[in-house]
């Protein structure tokens, strides 16, 4: 019975991972809150990729989630600023995923929490 429960838990986790990284054109982007929780929280994907400790799959997931973040509308502030912040994250994540020189530093710089939150969340 335990093996069956573990199997279902693993299958559910895989289904969630596939859903989070789905790139279907009609799909709603992953919510901002979910991207923040997965990527930007302490020890999240962004930190892992920037430190060089991420797997290729984790790098792809970071890029996909940042692309979804970019597709969302900003909760506050103007769209031009949102596009600037989120495009920088997408570009830096792609460069890091490709292993380009200086990409880790660019990703750390683009992941400027207070800059984005000050403009789009109302927190400073």
- What do the pLDDT scores average to? 85
Q: Number of helical runs?
A: 7
Helical fraction equals 55-70%
The biggest sheet amounts to: none
Order of helix and strand elements from N to C terminus? HHHHHHH
Summary of the model, kept short:
Helix content is 69%, strand content 0%. It is mostly helical and 124 residues long. The chain has one domain (2-120).
List keywords for this structure.
mainly alpha, 124 residues
What can you tell me about this protein's structure?
- By secondary structure, this protein is mainly alpha-helical.
- It has one domain (2-120).
- It is built from seven helices and no strands.
- Helix 4 (56-71) runs antiparallel to helix 5 (79-97) and helix 5 (79-97) runs antiparallel to helix 6 (103-110).
- The model has no long low-confidence stretch (mean pLDDT 85).
């Amino acid at each position: 019975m335990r093996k069956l429960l573990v199997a279902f838990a693993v299958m559910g986790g895989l289904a969630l991972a596939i859903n989070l990284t789905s790139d279907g054109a009609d799909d709603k982007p992953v919510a901002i809150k979910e991207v923040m929780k997965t990527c930007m929280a302490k020890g999240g994907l962004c930190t892992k990729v920037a430190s060089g400790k991420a797997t290729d799959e984790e790098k792809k997931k970071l890029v996909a989630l940042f692309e979804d973040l970019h597709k969302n509308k900003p909760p506050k502030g103007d769209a031009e600023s949102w596009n600037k912040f989120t495009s920088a994250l997408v570009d830096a994540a792609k460069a890091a995923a490709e292993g380009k020189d200086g990409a880790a530093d660019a990703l750390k710089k683009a992941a400027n929490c207070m800059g984005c939150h000050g403009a789009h969340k109302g927190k400073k």
